[in-house]
Amino acid sequence: MGRALGVLIWLLTIGSVWLFVNGRWWLPPYISEHGPAYDRQFMITIIVVGLSFAAAQIGLGWAVWRYGARGNRGERAVYSHGNNRLEIIWTAITALIFITLGLMGQRVWAQLHLNEAPAGSTKVHVVAQQFQWNFHYPGADKNFGRTDPNLVKDAELNFVGLDEQDANAKDDQVVTTLAVPVGRPVELTLESKDVTHDLFVPELRYKQDVVPGMAIKMHFTLTKEGRFELACAELCGQLHYKMKSYLIALPANVYDELVAMPQAQFQGRITQLIKEYPLGIRQGAATTAALR
Amino acid sequence: MSTRFASLGNLVKKQDLILNAVCLLFAAAFVVMALSNVRRAGNFFSIDSLFFTLVSLMLAGIFMIIPLMWAYETGLLRNLFAAEGDDAVGEAVPVHFEGTTKLFLSILGFLLLLTVIEVFLAYIQVPLALMLTILIGLSLIKAALILAYFMHLRYERMSLVYTLIPMLVICICLLFIFFPDSFRIFNLRNYR
Amino acid sequence: MEEATTPIEPSAAATEVGAAGTDAHAEAAAAHAPHGHHGPPTGFIRKYIFSIDHKVIGIQYLLLAIFAAFTGMFMSVLMRLNLTWPGHKWTILETIFPLGAPGGVMTPEFYLSLVTMHGTMMVFFVLTTAPQGGFGNYFLPIQVGAEDMAFPVLNMLSFWVTLVGLLVLISAIFVEGSTIVGNTDFVNNFLGGGGTGTLGPIGGWTGYPPLSALGKVAGPGQGAGATLWITSIAIFCIASLLGALNFITTLLNMRTRGMSLMRMPLTCWSWFTTAILALLAFPVLLAAGVLLLLDRHAGTSFFIPGGLVFNDVVQAHKGGSPILWQHLFWFFGHPEVYIAILPGMGATSHILSTFARKPVFGYRAMVFAMFAIGLLGFFVWGHHMFISGMDPRTSIAFSVLTLSIGVPSAIKTFNWLGTLWGAKIRFTVPMMFAIGFVSLFVAGGITGLVLGQTSLDLFIHDGYFVLAHFHLVMGVAAIFGMFAGVYFWFPKMFGRMMSERLGQLHFWPTFIGVYCIFVPMHIMGIVGMPRRYASFQEYDFLRPLDPLVLLVTIAAIVTAAAQFIFLFNFIWSIFKGKRASGNPWEATTLEWVTPTTPPPHDNFGGHLPTVYRGPYEFAVPDAPEDYVMQTTPDAGEGNVAAAGAGQGSGQGVQGSSGNGHNGQH
Amino acid sequence: MTTHAHTAERLTADDWSGGTFPYHIGHKKLGMWLFIVSDALTFSALLIGYSYVRVSSDQWATPFAFSPSILFSTSMTLCLLASSFTMVMAVAASARRDRRKARRWIGATMLGGLTFLALHIYEWLHLIEEGLRPFGLAQGSAFAKEWTERWPQASPLFGATFFAITGLHMFHVLTGVIYLGYIALRIRRKTHEDVEISGLYWHFVDLVWMFVFPLIYLLSVDFHPAVH
């Protein structure tokens, strides 16, 4: 019985490790500047985790395999209450590894969360509502028009409550797809109309809760063109799983043209772009440097 | 209890002294850091200032642990804070209720005095931040008086005090980690 | 509630008031006197229903947890079915849940209500109830050598309050849809619900406001069901508080002679730590729950900010913050994780040592690690909120503290391996589950290193990686600890053995099954699958995961089916199992020295045992057997003592008890 | 058995090795202390929640006039403090095994508690009549108008925090009075410890008020009162 259990533990360990290393399922390719750093930290952590996991399971399997009783009631186990030196050594080693890992893991976070977005970032307001994402662009004048919850009229497609009287609002566009330029820092301001949502684009390596009552800022820089699925990752009600949109990463010049358009044209162009860009990173796109 | 602390006391006296001195030095440095931050901060109730002060004070507290333990071991603390009955562990019939009407009346007098001071502060309209600090301080003193004399904790075993108070203090201190957020939310509110 | 904390004790009333009242020593004697608390009850109701015997209450808790566990498991299978074959018509479902699955197809809100109910049921009524309320109640007093809990009446009250909590929770499934309850007026007017055609609350077990705080306006599943759900949790908080203070008092005050803290079995340490956590964490949730109820029904806005718009209507609420709820909730929520897992650790240590026939490796380190985990558990709730909009600087502190919890956890793992090293393992069913616990604890716990890092959390938060992590470590591992406990203590609880063969048949598929369910879920998380989705069909990047989703579902169904073997074994063995001897496992602790099996009403038949040594004295050289009971007096001086009913021996014992045996190395 | 336990007691080198009460207090008293710790945390959570919403608001109404509102609540505080004192006297009397006196002092304590409750309920009714509600202000009242003029940006949570926290405290006082009544009625059958425990609970209720009073009342004082 003991041997069978030992072997089973080993088999399960091998199976688990295989699932992680077979390469069929892994993180989607990254598209942002912090992506490589994220992936590196992820790999390091997974390797440490994997090694510790395998070592512990192999040790457990070995103990179970080796130290089974042989049915002879007379034989006795080793009488020992422990070993303080061993205890101190392994505590120190694990503490060192874990804390180092923990400190290393703060880098990307600090870069994204403790730094402000660079001056001159492209700004977009995100207004989430139950089961729909609205993206509010400032238009050609780069100033956001005034919004007011009292002006929200979903039937008239005024999802964000834009005040038409405001001069800054004249050229603002509101669509349900997020288009941002590649190679320029982007700053999103996240707001929610009703409950807590969460903006999640796997390729972006970024999740951020959209908390009602707060205007939370997030910033990143994209390095690859393409169209990517944008999901809600915080339970927001009945149709949470359908709260989907797209992130379209456009070359800077295309983006500049796009934001100069008035609302109606803007919307048409976005629809066209969704068709133009197949899902995923756009193959054969010009390098980031050329797009700047 | 005593055996456990005795094993800690194996250190040579000199080492003890150096260790305590170093720890006290660090603790003092952190307290100075906190104080200078309080002095320099234009707006004390900002996230950064609060964060910095709290962290410094916490670190100072951590460095105080060793000197305090030493003080406990050598009996310094015991003489200062322990209840009168505490030394008499071997007493056949432990005295369970102490205190005279006079003592309780004077405690009541103290509590009333502190309450009157609080109300007076409200009367003369002290600025909010100062008011808050003083009120919390006075309330803590009042709470301590009630705990110690009315609730009789002073005459119980010190071990009971050691069991109850840290639990409460740790949890309440932890709850204060919420506060950086409340300041931040104030700034991030989108609809006023 | 106040009266409950001071139940009238006949013995205390009978004692001369002044003298005994001022003399704790005399009261200690009274508490240890035979039949000090209450005589054995007579009559079926006093004996088995409203019993104040901690053993009966323990079994009641256990049965409640088994019921809740099977209900929760059934819900999880339904969820898997919906995820794997979306849109498939399950005709039978229409019969059971006409509102949740009209035409046999589950609605998304029904799926979410299953998610919520599964989570709440499992976390509160299984993981908190079974190991603590069940085993803790039954064995803590026996293992420390007490006749009963400190407050027997309070103990009974905690159980019944828990039961009320469970009933309220279950009723939450049925009130929301009007056709089931029938009495719509009551639902509409009194509870604020209404026939929305859905079943149960859908806010998840974390119930984040404003979704859960606004009532019906926030969509289906936020009416009366949600009110009952939060009420149930508040009730559960009260029950747990009462239970926790009972446990702590019992353990501190009622240990028998010679049972110093460092001679307690590790199970007692784990229940003690858990009780402290419960005592400090539940009141905060209670406060949060009260505020949420006020938000829902008194129109306050503690958790609701201004400017919310539903269907073009601006809500009247203003001034609160959803983050406040998250702080209060997770201040409770993270210690809760340890409330679930620590008793499992205790039971595992206990059982590993017993069947390895070897003392626990590093007893002192185990105790300190347990306390460290408990203490650190209070410092890290923020890691549930890294991306919630909380202050990003505090996140860094939370993150580093989180990773440091890995250290005591690793110490425990190493010590378990150390216990097995050089052992003579007897592979009984409880031992298999205990070994399974270690394996699963490592598998589930180690991924905490990934999740605890703020940066990495940016991608895997709220995804299947988290789901896999906490299910493995606080769900399945904890449940393995419970299974180990059931198989181990069953002979003592019911006087009969559980079938070994059926036990083996239960263990193998369960162990393989849980690996097949939860390891692939990590992979799903890495690909980016978000939690609480009623269907994954909307997203192209999740398509490649279809084979894994299928694998998980099949494994889940097989594992769930295997649990019925356990259920059958459990019920069958109560009536037909092989008669058990007093100490079938040749274990050393006090529960195995009771005069009868199951133990008599006052546990030790009026003579409380005296303890002479630590709990895990196996393989002692020169001892006649390979185990030495805690009550066996020391050779030499003890012999006199044994004859003199403990009087003379007291000195010998106490003299050597200063450090116990544990400081030897 | 008693002598036996005493023997073990004397032989026990330290309080923690079993067979005795480590803190030298009985179950019920320890249980009450633990309950107090836990209940204190409930109140802390509420008070901290209150501070949290107050700090994160633009403006917080400070409607209490020094006279009469604060003086009124001060007299409530005095009631509680006095009742705490009488409770101590009750415990002291019970320690002297003077049950008659103990009962009288408990009666005085209950009287203090009931006066507090009466004053508190009067205050609540007064505020509700003026127009303060848990969800903010009653629409259309003159009070609401004045309030909105004085504090245009004020968070509506003033009433919510006020009623929630003082309400929970009031509930505790009420439970305490009933509990004390029960002890006083059956004082012949109660040990000194029972009286002491009821005292612990009563002092705890008083202790909580020592935080509620400054945080809720004194920090909401205004020279130009809206509440009269």
List keywords for this structure.
heterotetramer; B: 192 residues; mainly alpha; 8 helices; D: 228 residues; Four Helix Bundle (Hemerythrin (Met), subunit A); two-stranded antiparallel ribbon; elongated; disordered N terminus
Characterization of the model:
The complex is a heterotetramer of chains A (292), B (192), C (665) and D (228). Chain A is of the alpha+beta class and 292 residues long. Chain A has 2 domains: 2-67 and 85-111, no CATH class; 122-291, Immunoglobulin-like. Chain A has 7 helices and 11 strands. In chain A, helix 1 runs antiparallel to helix 2 (35-66). The model of chain A is unreliable at 287-292 (pLDDT under 50). Chain B has 192 residues and is an all-alpha fold. Chain B has a domain at 1-81. Chain B contains 8 helices and no strands. Chain C has 665 residues and is mostly helical. In chain C, strands 1-2 form a two-stranded antiparallel sheet. In chain C, a hairpin with a 2-residue loop joins strand 1 (309-310) and strand 2. By secondary structure, chain D is mainly alpha-helical. Chain D has one domain (26-222): Cytochrome c oxidase, subunit III, four-helix bundle (Four Helix Bundle (Hemerythrin (Met), subunit A), Up-down Bundle). Chain D is 72% helix and 4% strand. Chain D has 7 helices and 4 strands, in the order H-H-E-H-H-E-E-H-H-H-E. In chain D, 60% of the residues are buried. Residues 1-12 of chain D have low confidence and may be disordered. Chains in contact: A-B, A-C, B-C, B-D, C-D. At the B-D interface, helix 5, helix 6, helix 7 and helix 8 of B face helix 2, helix 3 and helix 7 of D.
Per-chain topology:
The complex is a heterotetramer of chains A (292), B (192), C (665) and D (228).
Chain A (H helix, E strand, L loop, with lengths): L1 H20 L13 H32 L17 H21 L2 H8 L7 E8 L2 E6 L35 E3 L2 E4 L3 E8 L4 E5 L4 E5 L5 E6 L4 E7 L11 E7 L1 H9 L2 H14 L3 E2 L6 H4 L1
Helix pairs in contact in A: 1-2
Chain B lengths: L1 H7 L4 H28 L6 H27 L2 H6 L19 H23 L4 H23 L7 H18 L3 H10 L4
Helix pairs in contact in B: 2-3, 3-8, 5-6
Chain C lengths: L1 H4 L4 H5 L2 H6 L1 H9 L11 H6 L4 H31 L6 H6 L11 H37 L7 H24 L2 H4 L2 H8 L32 H30 L12 H32 L11 E2 L2 E2 L7 H35 L6 H15 L14 H29 L8 H17 L2 H4 L2 H7 L3 H31 L5 H28 L18 H31 L60 H7 L3 H10 L9
Helix pairs in contact in C: 6-8, 6-9, 6-22, 8-9, 8-12, 8-13, 8-14, 8-20, 9-12, 12-13, 13-14, 13-15, 14-15, 14-16, 14-17, 14-20, 15-16, 16-17, 17-20, 17-21, 20-21, 21-22, 23-24
